[in-house]
User: What shape does this take?
Amino acid sequence: PPRAGSSEVVSGQSHRITNVKAGNALDLSGVDDRSIIGHPYHGGMNQQWTFTWEGDAWSIRSVSSSKHLGIDGNPNNG
Assistant: This one.
């Protein structure tokens, strides 16, 4: 599988996703267990993501809830 970002991503292992510029980690909000926010890294399971190579794309799943990361709306609008 291809590499994602500046670190090697290993399929089936959990990783954190960090905005290098802001220093925040991708965080599954505990408010609704649905929203994704940027939050300082604290190592919680809601900031850990399992990457799985699906043959032609990465699947990204939250360690805390097993929900997959997705994008709302039309995938063709840019």
